Amino acid sequence: HEADAYRTDLMTITRFVLNEQSKYPESRGDFTILLSNIVLGCKFVCSAVNKAGLAKLIGLAGDTNIQGEEQKKLDVLSNDVFIKALVSSGRTSVLVSEEDEEATFVESSKRGKYCVVFDPLDGSSNIDCGVSIGTIFGIYTMEHSDEPTTKDVLKPGNEMVAAGYCMYGSSCMLVLSTGTGVHGFTLDPSLGEFILTHPDIKIPKKGNIYSVNEGNAQNWDGPTTKYVERCKYPKDGSPAKSLRYVGSMVADVHRTLLYGGIFLYPADKKSPNGKLRVLYEVFPMAFLMEQAGGQAFTGKKRALDLVPKKIHERSPIFLGSYDDVEEIKALYAAEE
Ligand code: AHG
Ligand code: MN
Ligand code: MN
Ligand code: MN
């Protein structure tokens, strides 16, 4: 019977997306080709991460990025792989990476209708100590055939057609949404294929975990301070929440998606726009959270309604279980 015999009806990510895309007759497999190149990048980074220490891939690359962060070797390596895979797919026109100061405009002979914004390696501070890290991506379409410009990516997150992340942890998991729910695929290294293991992920309506860097507490504003206080000292006699904070957004968001709860990267006095970048961290995770029945809030508005002015713009972000985010929205509303 099915349990012990090898499951022979392998639902690979490619097959899954082809099924999904067949609902859109106009897509002549372009999205599937784009996705297969993103998947190639993820497989490469997964294998590089797994042998980082052995392949002397840990430590600094000796350069700093536009964010003012010292680039790790894996930051640079994964960025190179994704840029090359996306350009060679022949399905993209504009690429924005955390690691590149300027957007990449694909030369006309290789242009396609998608624009991809991505964080090639998320959680770099955790590389050298072997804690889970990831890749985050969001996808826009470009409906015109003029010269591509940054206007093709400086769009609200509500115009994204797909978003996802890959987490390089105890297993390698790719979580993806193309607008019809959230689905999780686990890499089977013996096949080199991402197999559907978590169909239609829904985040619990309420959770009992909060995830924030408490080290910034002295710089938080009133509503955030009040919310975290309530997590620790509930007024209504309910049990205090647990604190879980990995420091890799992908890992903290993945746990929030599966277990429920809330992830916060608030504004603080030092960084009024918080730390996380709108295009390739906030938007993709907000997209996934809404598709999974949760929500994502900036302290002022629905995260997906932000319209970025610059490709590396930052925003505060509160995302996770629907009811938990409602509570912090009420605190900010009371502050207005
Ligand atoms: P990146 O490594 O891509 O620059 O992202 C790091 C981000 C994110 O992964 C995480 O949630 C956040 O930095 C942690 O920031 P703190 O160390 O300030 O808590
Ligand atoms: Mn970084
Ligand atoms: Mn990141
Ligand atoms: Mn990064």
From TrEMBL:
Residues 203-332 form the Fructose-1-6-bisphosphatase class 1 C-terminal domain. It is an enzyme of class 3 (hydrolase). GO terms for biological process: fructose 1,6-bisphosphate metabolic process; fructose 6-phosphate metabolic process; fructose metabolic process; gluconeogenesis; photosynthesis; sucrose biosynthetic process. Keywords: Carbohydrate metabolism, Cytoplasm, Hydrolase, Magnesium, Metal-binding. Its EC number is 3.1.3.11. The keyword Cytoplasm applies. Its cofactor is Mg(2+). GO terms for molecular function: fructose 1,6-bisphosphate 1-phosphatase activity; metal ion binding. It catalyses: beta-D-fructose 1,6-bisphosphate + H2O = beta-D-fructose 6-phosphate + phosphate. GO terms for cellular component: cytosol. Residues 11-199 form the Fructose-1-6-bisphosphatase class I N-terminal domain. CDD domains: FBPase. It is found in: Cytoplasm. The keyword Transmembrane helix does not apply. Pfam families: FBPase, FBPase_C. Belongs to the FBPase class 1 family. This is Fructose-1,6-bisphosphatase, cytosolic. The lineage of its organism: Eukaryota, Viridiplantae, Streptophyta, Embryophyta, Tracheophyta.
